[in-house]
Design brief:
The structure is a homodimer. By secondary structure, the first copy, chain A, is α/β, with parallel strands linked by helices. Chain A is built from seven helices and ten strands. A five-stranded parallel sheet of chain A has the order 3-2-4-1-5, with helices on both faces. In chain A, strand 8 (195-199) and strand 9 form a beta hairpin. In chain A, helix 3 (70-89) packs across helix 4 (108-115). The longest helix of chain A is centred in the middle third of the chain and has 20 residues, at 70-89. Chain A starts with a strand and ends in a 5-residue tail after the last strand. Strand 6 of chain A pairs antiparallel with strand 6 (148-152) of chain B, so a sheet runs across the interface.
């Protein structure tokens, strides 16, 4: 009887976009840790996996406060990590789920930092939001010798500007609160016509916006808003 | 009775890393197109999906010559596209499979260019080799404000050099024939200790190389060789 921690990427939102491996593991879990607290992310990861979970699984949700206070965040992570560690050392099969891929802009990484090397861990990759959007909208991410740059729109303006200037294909994540800035950059580099915005991709509330210039700049986009740009693709 | 073309990403190699959606679609196909011809890629995509295919499916393999002759390549693509188009217009459910994700460095895109708008097409994303490697080796792809750059090592040296100079996290794809150059760049930017090489990831012949300096520079790596670098991750 040996415990195990599974870090599982749930993909962007459609339960059918989980991997077969993820669904097999979910069915064997005894305890699942799921994030809660973000207004729109509340139990979303849990709802995506719900159909695959065994009836008597113990669900432990943890609340992450929307704060820039690193000490406060760190304390929450320490507590969750400690709780998971105790469960695994008690011999339990424990899962932690995260939207999209587990290793890209995922809260999972904060846990991994604390737990790697202390307990056995297996990680299962997930479909990223941008792979989903590319397939859904028929726009390649990168072709032949082209590079693909995945950017967090919370990065400094000069980082984004440099990428816009030098790259032909990129993914803009965490667009939500940064739409005005992003659109100004797209305009500056004549990339507006090559961009597509998807909000809540693979969820029932999914919206695809082909013409970014049509959106009201003062509008607050959903938390899950991603833009793809590939200026080498003619459609 | 209306035909449909499904472009399906098979993931890196483990049949369990297909999505549930991909397996559901594979089970309903009447015809499947699979690439053949690369020495090591021969029928690999087909072998990954084999367990999910219906008994009486028609398998059409197409050979892509290893050539830099664009006209020759283009003729092959034209013929495959035409054949698929005829099958779909005849009302068939037709699948085209491709390793990894369907929209990233995939032969699928050459087909999409020819067929988009002429027949109904649905695309299903797949797990990329780098998402698999990150999960397998416990190395995050990008965190917080960090960017992730995915590079094809067939790109010009100055493109790779610029990325190495400015980025902290990147994925190097198509490393196979370019190991000496890649390793020289990693050395130049003091990134060797942050790099990990995986060949034939998620296949039975998978190898993980933690110390790139230990590989013989004259060695020819397998076709599926990928390097991850994230200098911000301490392990």
């Amino acid at each position: 009887m040996s415990g195990m921690l599974y870090g599982i990427g749930t993909g962007p939102g459609d339960p059918d976009l989980l991997t077969v491996k993820a669904t097999n593991i979910l069915q064997q879990l005894e305890i699942i840790y799921a994030p809660a607290g973000r207004k729109e992310g509340d139990s979303l990861a849990l709802s995506i996996t719900r159909a695959y979970l065994p009836d008597h699984i113990e669900i432990k949700t943890h609340h992450f406060p929307m704060t820039h206070d690193l000490d406060e965040k760190s304390t929450v992570w320490d507590n969750v990590a400690q709780s998971i560690q105790l469960d695994v050392l008690a011999g339990k099969k424990v899962g932690f789920i995260s939207l999209g891929d587990i290793m890209l802009y995922s809260t999972w990484v904060s846990l991994l930092e604390r737990l790697q090397g202390t307990i056995p861990i297996i990680m299962i990759p997930g479909i990223t939001s941008f792979a989903y959007i590319a397939a859904k909208t028929g726009r390649p991410l990168a072709m032949a010798q082209q590079s693909l740059t995945v950017l967090s729109c919370t990065a400094p303006l000069e980082v984004l500007d440099a990428a816009f200037q030098s790259q032909s294909s990129f993914v803009l994540m965490k667009v939500s609160r940064n739409l005005a800035m992003v659109r100004a950059l797209l305009k500056k580099y004549h990339l507006l016509e090559h961009a597509i915005l998807v909000t809540n991709g693979a969820l029932s509330s999914e919206k695809i916006v082909q013409h970014l210039q049509d959106i009201d700049e003062t509008e607050t986009l959903p938390y899950f808003s991603t833009i793809l740009v590939n200026s080498k693709w003619r459609f």
